[in-house]
Amino acid sequence: MNRFLTRLVSVREIPVLLALFIVLVVTGIANPQFVSASGAQDIFLGVAVIATLSVGMTFVITMRHIDLSVGSTAGFTAYMIGKMSAHHHGLVTSLLVALGIGLIVGAANGFLVAYLRLPSLVVTLASLWIVRGVFDQIAGGDTVTDNQVPVALGYLGRHSFANIPYIFIIAFVLILVASFFMRSVRPARDLYAMGSNPPASELAGIPVARRTFFAFLASGAVSGLGGAILLARFHSADSNSGLGLELNVIAACVVGGVAIAGGVGTPYGALIGALLLQSITQALGALGVSQFWQLAVNGTLLISAISLDRYLTLRVKPTRILRVKS
Amino acid sequence: MKRVTFNWDKGILVFLVLTTIVGSFVTPYFANASNFSFVIQDIGEFMLMAIPMTFLIISGEIDLSIGSSLCLSSAALGYSFRHGIPFWLCIIIALLVGLACGLINGILVTKFGLQSLAVTIGTLALYRGLCFVLLGNQPVNQMPLSYTNLGSNSIPHTFLPYVTILIVIFGAIGWTTLHYTRLGRWTFAVGINVEAAKFSGIPVARLKLALFAMTGLMAGVAGIVYTFRFASASPDGATGYELSVIASVLFGGVSIAGGVGTMWGVLAAVLELGVIRSVLQLTNVSANTLLVVSGGLLLLSVAIPRAIELSRNRRKLVSSDSKS
Amino acid sequence: MQKRLTRVAIAIVAVAALAGTTATANAGSAGIKGGLKIAIMPKAVNNGYFTAWAKGGTTACKEIGARCTYLGPTTATGAAQVQFINQIIQQHYNVLVISAADQNAIVPALNKAKAAGITIVTSDADVDASAAASRVTAVLPASSTRIGTAEVDWIAAATGGKGSIAILSAAATAANQNAWIAAMGPYLTSKYPNMSWVGGTVDKSVFYGNDDATTSTQQFDAILAQYPNVAGIISPTTVGVLAAAQEKKAKSLTVAITGLGLPSQMGPYITDGTVLKVGLWNPIDLGYVAVYAAAEAASGTFKGTVGSTFYAGNTKKTKKTYTVTAGGITYLGDPFTFDKSNIATFAAIY
């Protein structure tokens, strides 16, 4: 039993899942409305955008890098999709443009980080500002309104399958695919090696530069498409869309066990992290906690989550490794 | 490697001189006393926070909560003033709150062994949240003019705002400490190779704790400057300052990987960013373009040294080839 | 019943609007100086409301032969605005028309601008009452009481005058919103005995969406999770009311929504019945009048003392006179109300 427990908590995602469960149960007892179908829908809708963006972020953080440009990119493409559709371009064209913008940003980040070996924090902070500046210049004070949102996106944002919103299903499928890749496909698996020990992975013959480039490219592409989810979710977009989203995405990853130090974590872990953060935000509301306290509580929980993760890694992992060795 | 960054620091100075000269030619509003006073006032808080951040980043850590720490110390100042505490005491409270913010970050990083990037994303939210808890929807205003005038007036008989005094004092302390004391050498050593530093007897944890505490304390000082300058305390003050501070430190040639950087490079960089901003604004460049320019400059600050390094390596390779 | 209430509400608003802007004959006849250099500064650029506001200001500038610049920060904070105030001091502008992003933080900078000889008029959002001396006058849409009570009337029309009400505001520190909300509290309790605040008092019924689509939507959901029986939500901010309408439509909810919304943004929701009515003053007029006030003050024909008057408009037909009221504030007139009957017209304008 004890060994089973030890093994269970050694899976990084389990404690987060447990925390999620506790939040749902406690809040559910205090406010039954919270665990209703509509409460669940709120949570799913709330995480759809963050979960989508966390896929690319997981790739990047796993190899000990970071991508701060995701919020600007997603906001920009959300606006562009709406604007293009308002000018009677088809949905496919709009999505391709969004994907294209994402790929350009991702390729620029990837090139600078992978081939020029510039620090990703600096590069993506710069692209955060540059993309936002270009976006602001193009959008100005203009707002994409409901009637400009492509019909299909509008439908996806408003409807559910078995009470699960379509946009969450899309994010979920993306997460599953990415998780499968990182588990079973060699190039994606390499990201773990690169994050655990960059010099060693180079010596081991991993094409580090190419992998890094493609991981950033993937993050850009996902952010581009994340714009579509953002637009579907909010049915409007303006120059403030996606502002500050990057920190929420990183927080979801970190809480979900994707360590900033690289080398560990899974996309589904990031999803659980996003679900936990969203549930906590909504639980605080449902429990009637003053909004002035909510940010402080969120911050405390984020720190607790990292501390717990650290504690478990220190206490549980070594014993397991030792046992395997002996 | 070291020689390359040395070049970049020099580049910043050249850049600063160039911008100033170009600025004086392209706009008649740039080169005068009142404008320099505005520029210094604008960069005051950033300068004060960039000094400890330089140490922190050189040692291989980072503090994303610095904007929130600034706000929390400002909020604490406002909160205690509102509750009738004498103003000089409010200032001490604000400093202590800043120090506490830094200590908490430092303890979480050194005692709990957590990643500073992750921890300070958490405390960024926590400290900001506490600002709202303290002040709610009621910003504090009507602070004693004798104090807030220090924030907006200049030192008598000069065009220099009072914050210049703080910048000079702390800049000098930061400079000498980083480059001429054991503490500074330790900071570099820890940033270059933390394991080696540990084995050579450097108290790494204590050093980092001290650096985080200093960062918090300086955020507190900046919080007071900020409160005086805007003659008020508001829970949403200084939002997003952390990225600007970090960006200007990196722009000053400090490597985000740790172990590399100079204090005067950073001080010149903060000043340069203020001057560029001023020149661009005075030539009627829009706020949107300013964002793009900030991003572009940040990229250049890492790309140029890199390009120099690459070309040098190639030259070295070529010359060694020709020799053999 | 509902229809009659609506009609009564419109009538009240219309009458009040007339009363608010009645011309008092002897319009200032002295001319406005030509060639004034005017800066029009919003809380933040890239915002549809302020684009419209600046459009009015720019029109006025053309009429009076002034040179206008629309400039400001990308984020609505006082600290960011100060950098631009410093810029206009350096560039020797004659006039600053500004919507205060922070009622306190910009005051020291405004005082410096004033000392540098710049004529300052706040518009849309004023500085704190304690700093009223830093500007000539504040050109505001309508008194806080009128805006607050009008919104309560709209929500009463939409809920049939009963049920509990919540508020989805902008940032917690937004001075305008806080003043309007303060006016809503007692009015709802006294005028509509069958209506109440979800949190018991108005202070405990406010949720802050920070003028951000994501946060506003989250807080809208929080209202419904916390108070499933909420009958109506007032959102006195254009971002909040848009987010609320979107979320209501997405989830096919029954909660009534009203607030201050741009007709161009709210058009689809009013047309399809998601929202019965919203209101707003005309930001174009607001900017237009503010520039006239500032230009006349800069020309020495208007002092901004309580009871003094200025005019706006360059033809006899469009010319209107405005009188400064207590606190140095000039009101434009009551907000317009938009519903199915007129939304198409207004949506085309702003």
Describe this structure in words.
The complex is a heterotrimer of chains A (326), B (324) and C (350). Chain A has helices at 2-10, 13-30, 37-62, 70-86, 91-115, 120-139, 151-158, 166-184, 186-196, 198-203, 208-234, 245-255, 267-286, 291-315, 317-325, and strands spanning 160-161, 164-165. By secondary structure, chain A is mainly α. Chain A has a single domain (39-309), classed as Orthogonal Bundle (ABC transporter involved in vitamin B12 uptake, BtuC), CATH 1.10.3470. A two-stranded antiparallel sheet of chain A has the order 1-2. In chain A, a hairpin with a 2-residue loop joins strand 1 (160-161) and strand 2. In chain A, helix 4 packs parallel to helix 6 (120-139), helix 4 crosses helix 11 (208-234) and helix 5 packs antiparallel against helix 11 (208-234). Chain A starts with a helix and ends with a helix. Chain B is built from 13 helices and no strands. Chain B has a single domain, classed as ABC transporter involved in vitamin B12 uptake, BtuC. The relative contact order of chain B is 0.20. The two termini of chain B are 25 Å apart. Chain C folds into two domains: 2-141 and 282-332, Response regulator (Rossmann fold, 3-Layer(aba) Sandwich), CATH 3.40.50; 144-280, Response regulator (Rossmann fold), CATH 3.40.50. Chain C has eleven helices and 15 strands. Chain C has helices at 2-21, 48-64, 78-90, 107-115, 144-159, 175-191, 213-226, 238-250, 263-271, 283-298, 343-347; strands spanning 37-41, 67-70, 95-98, 119-123, 137-140, 163-169, 195-197, 206-208, 232-235, 256-259, 278-280, 309-312, 320-325, 329-331, 336-338. In chain C, the strands form three sheets. In chain C, strands 2-1-3-4-5-14-13-12 form an eight-stranded mixed β-sheet, with helices on both faces. In chain C, strands 6, 7, 8, 9 and 10 form a five-stranded parallel β-sheet that branches. In chain C, helix 4 (107-115) links the parallel strand 3 and strand 4. In chain C, helix 3 packs parallel to helix 4. The longest helix of chain C is centred in the first third of the chain and has 20 residues, at 2-21. Chain C is elongated. Chains in contact: A-B, A-C, B-C. Chain A binds chain C through residues 31, 33-34, 38-39, 41-42, 46, 136, 139-143, 145-147, 157-158, 233-241, 243, 245, 281-282, 285-286, 288, 291-292, and chain C through 45-52, 74, 172, 207-208, 212-214, 217-219, 221-222, 224-226, 228, 242-243, 246, 249-251, 262, 264-265, 267-269.
